C-alpha cells in the first residue's frame, strides 16, 4: 500500500554562504495510513523544523514530500496542525475558534456550528463552548486546538509538542484523551515530543533523530497492544522500550564527527 | 544552632519583620483603598500648600493667584461663554487632527508591521522624521497652512502620526507567529490573515497606542494655539499673559490637565469594554 505521507531525501539548511548551517540531512520517512508516529530527539535535532516543513510553513532545499501521492507545496487544509503555543484566538469563544477553521474550510454557518459542537464534545468541553480562551486552562485550550485541527477532517494531524507547556498531571490526562480519540477515530499523526514516555504511550512507531546535522538515527516499533490505558506504562515491555529510546536519543545527541 | 535562626519560628505566626515586609517593598501589592487614600492625600496636600502660600501672602498674586481667585475667574469665563467657545474650538481641532493622524497611521502601521518590503520603504523614513522637533515645524506650518484650523490639524498630525506609525508597527509585530501559522495552515490567503487574524489580534495594542498618542496630541494642540490662533484654550492662555491674568492661565492649565485625564480614563474604560474577553494579562 502506498504511504499516506512520504518524505524522501529531504534536506534543509538555514542561512547562506559562510553562515549556512545544515539542519536536516537526507530525511526519509513514510507514514502508513492511520499510523501514529512520534519524532523524538535532543533539542536542535530539527524535529520541529521537519514537522513545520511537512505543514508547509517552511521551505526546504531538496527532496520530495507528498501526501497521498500529491506533492506538498504549501500549507493546506489536508494537514491539521496543533502548535505547542496556545493558538486559540483570544477574541473568539471556544466554539467560535473551531468555527473559524470550519469557515475557512468553506462550510456554511449551520454546519460550522454543528461540527464545532460535536468536536467540543469529542474533547469533553461541551460545557465550555461559549467561554473565551482567557477563561480556559492550558489543558482546555489545547483540547480546543486539537478539536479545531480535527474538525475539518484533515488527511493527517501534525502536532508539535502540543502538551509541552502543560503540568505533568494535565499532560497525562491529555495523553489519555488523545489515545482514546485516536483509537476510536484513527488518523495518521506525526507527533513531535521530547517526552519519551509520552512517545511510547501514544505511538505505533518512534523515530529518533540526532544532531550534527539533524538526521534519523533509529526507529522503534511500539508493539504494545491497544487499547492502551495508563497502567501499560508500568509493564516491563513499556519500560524496556522507553530505556531503548532514551539510549538512542543519548547516542544521537553526540555529533558524528566527535563520536 | 536553632536559637540563632529566627526563620525557624512557627511559620503560621509570622514575625513582626515578616509582616512588615509584606506591606511595602518592590512590587508588593497594596489594597485599593490604601492606594486611593495616598493618591488623594497628595492632591489635597498640594492644594493646601498652594492655598496657604497665597493666603499668607508668601507670593504675589500676579505670579501665583489663590485657588479661590482661579476658581472665580474660571466660573466667570464659563458664565460669559468664553470658556465654552475656547473648549469647543480646541476640542474640534484635536478631534479632527487626531482622527486624520490615526486614520492614516493604522493602515500604514499594519502594512509595515506585516510586510518587510513596506517596512524597508517606510520605517527608516518615519524614524528620521520623528526625530525632527515638532516645535520647529510651527513656523513652516503657518507658512503652509496659515493660522486657521488646518494649521492646527497639521501640527497635531506631525506630532502624533509618525510616533503612531512606529508604535502600531510594533503592536502588529507582536502578534504571535503561530497565529499567522494557524491562518496559513487553514489555507487562508494573506489578505484574510491580515483582516481576520493580524488586525483583531493587534487591536488591543493599537487601542493602547491611540490612548497614549492622544495624550501627546493635547500638547501639540496647545502649542499650535499658543503661537497662532484667534480662539481655543491655548490662545486664551497667550492673551491672558498679555494682561497679567495669571488666574486665567493657571485655571486653563489645570483644565487642560483635567481634560487629558478624562480622555485617558474614557479610553481606558472603553478598552475594558471592547477587549473584556481577552483578559489583557496574556
Automatic annotation (TrEMBL), chain A:
- Claim: Transmembrane is one of the keywords in the record: no
What range(s) does the ABC transporter domain occupy?
5-236
Q: Which domain of life is it from?
A: Bacteria
In Gene Ontology terms, what is one molecular function of this protein?
ATP binding
Which PROSITE patterns would you find in this protein's record? ABC_TRANSPORTER_1, ABC_TRANSPORTER_2
Alphabetically sorted, this entry's keywords are: ATP-binding, Nucleotide-binding, Transport
Q: Which family does it belong to?
A: Belongs to the ABC transporter superfamily.
UniProt keyword Cytoplasm, yes or no: no
Q: Gene3D superfamilies recorded for this chain?
A: P-loop containing nucleotide triphosphate hydrolases (3.40.50.300)
| The protein's name | ABC transporter related protein
From TrEMBL, chain B:
Which keywords does UniProt give here? Cell membrane, Membrane, Transmembrane, Transmembrane helix, Transport
**Could you tell me the superkingdom of the organism this chain comes from?**
Bacteria
As for membrane topology, the entry says:
Multi-pass membrane protein
The stretch of residues making up the signal peptide is none
The record's InterPro entries line, in alphabetical order, gives:
MetI-like, MetI-like_sf
The membrane spanning regions, by residue number, are 35-53, 94-116, 128-147, 216-237, 249-267
The residues covered by the ABC transmembrane type-1 domain are 87-271
Please give the family membership noted in the entry: Belongs to the binding-protein-dependent transport system permease family.
Q: Any idea what this protein is called?
A: Binding-protein-dependent transport systems inner membrane component
Query: Which species is this record about?
Result: Mesorhizobium ciceri biovar biserrulae (strain HAMBI 2942 / LMG 23838 / WSM1271)
From the broadest rank down, the organism's phylogenetic lineage runs: Bacteria, Pseudomonadati, Pseudomonadota, Alphaproteobacteria, Hyphomicrobiales
Amino acid at each position: 500500500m502506498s504511504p499516506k505521507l512520504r518524505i524522501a531525501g529531504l534536506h534543509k539548511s538555514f542561512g547562506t554562504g559562510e553562515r549556512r548551517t545544515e539542519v536536516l540531512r537526507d530525511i526519509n520517512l513514510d507514514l502508513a495510513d492511520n499510523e501514529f508516529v512520534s519524532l523524538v530527539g535532543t533539542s536542535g535535532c530539527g524535529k520541529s523544523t521537519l514537522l513545520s516543513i511537512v505543514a508547509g510553513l517552511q521551505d526546504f532545499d531538496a527532496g520530495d514530500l507528498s501526501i497521498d501521492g500529491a506533492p506538498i507545496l504549501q500549507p493546506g487544509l489536508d494537514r491539521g496542525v496543533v502548535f505547542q503555543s496556545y493558538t486559540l484566538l483570544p477574541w473568539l469563544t471556544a466554539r467560535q475558534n473551531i468555527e473559524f477553521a470550519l469557515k475557512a474550510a468553506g462550510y456554511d454557518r449551520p454546519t460550522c456550528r454543528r461540527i464545532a459542537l460535536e468536536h467540543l464534545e469529542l474533547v469533553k468541553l461541551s460545557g465550555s463552548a461559549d467561554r473565551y480562551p482567557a477563561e480556559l486552562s492550558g489543558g482546555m485550550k489545547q483540547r480546543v486546538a486539537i478539536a479545531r485541527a480535527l474538525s475539518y477532517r484533515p488527511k493527517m494531524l501534525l502536532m508539535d509538542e502540543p502538551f509541552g507547556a502543560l503540568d505533568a498531571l494535565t499532560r497525562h490526562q491529555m495523553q489519555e484523551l488523545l489515545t482514546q480519540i485516536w483509537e476510536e477515530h484513527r488518523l495518521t499523526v506525526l507527533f513531535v515530543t521530547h517526552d519519551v514516555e509520552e512517545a511510547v504511550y501514544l505511538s505505533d512507531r518512534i523515530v529518533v533523530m540526532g544532531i550534527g546535522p539533524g538526521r534519523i538515527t533509529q526507529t522503534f516499533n511500539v508493539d504494545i497492544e491497544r487499547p492502551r490505558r495508563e497502567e501499560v506504562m508500568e509493564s516491563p515491555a513499556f519500560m524496556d522500550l522507553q530505556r531503548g529510546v532514551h539510549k538512542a536519543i543519548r547516542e544521537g545527541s553526540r555529533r558524528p564527527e566527535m563520536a | 544552632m536553632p536559637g540563632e535562626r529566627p526563620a525557624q519560628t512557627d511559620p503560621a505566626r509570622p514575625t513582626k519583620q515578616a509582616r512588615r515586609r509584606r506591606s511595602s517593598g518592590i512590587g508588593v501589592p497594596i489594597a485599593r483603598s490604601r492606594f486611593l487614600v495616598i493618591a488623594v492625600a497628595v492632591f489635597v496636600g498640594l492644594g493646601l500648600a498652594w492655598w496657604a502660600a497665597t493666603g499668607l501672602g508668601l507670593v504675589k498674586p500676579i505670579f501665583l493667584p489663590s485657588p479661590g481667585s482661579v476658581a472665580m475667574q474660571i466660573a466667570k469665563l464659563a458664565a460669559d461663554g468664553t470658556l465654552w467657545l475656547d473648549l469647543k474650538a480646541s476640542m474640534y481641532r484635536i478631534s479632527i487632527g487626531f482622527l486624520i493622524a490615526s486614520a492614516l497611521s493604522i493602515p500604514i502601521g499594519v502594512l509595515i508591521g506585516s510586510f518587510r518590503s513596506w517596512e524597508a520603504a517606510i520605517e527608516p523614513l518615519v524614524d528620521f522624521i520623528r526625530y525632527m522637533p515638532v516645535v520647529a515645524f510651527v513656523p513652516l506650518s503657518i507658512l503652509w497652512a496659515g493660522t486657521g484650523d488646518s494649521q492646527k490639524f497639521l501640527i497635531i498630525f506631525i506630532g502624533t502620526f509618525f510616533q503612531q506609525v512606529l508604535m502600531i508597527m510594533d503592536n502588529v509585530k507582536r502578534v504571535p507567529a503561530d497565529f499567522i501559522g494557524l491562518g496559513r495552515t487553514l489555507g487562508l490567503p494573506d489578505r484574510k490573515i491580515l483582516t481576520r487574524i493580524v488586525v483583531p489580534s493587534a487591536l488591543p495594542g493599537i487601542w493602547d497606542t491611540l490612548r497614549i498618542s492622544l495624550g501627546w496630541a493635547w500638547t501639540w494642540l496647545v502649542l499650535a494655539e499658543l503661537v497662532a490662533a484667534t480662539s481655543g484654550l491655548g490662545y486664551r492662555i497667550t492673551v491672558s499673559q498679555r494682561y497679567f491674568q495669571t488666574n486665567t492661565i493657571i485655571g486653563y492649565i489645570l483644565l487642560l490637565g483635567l481634560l487629558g485625564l478624562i480622555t485617558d480614563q474614557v479610553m481606558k474604560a472603553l478598552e475594558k469594554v471592547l477587549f473584556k474577553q481577552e483578559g489583557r494579562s496574556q
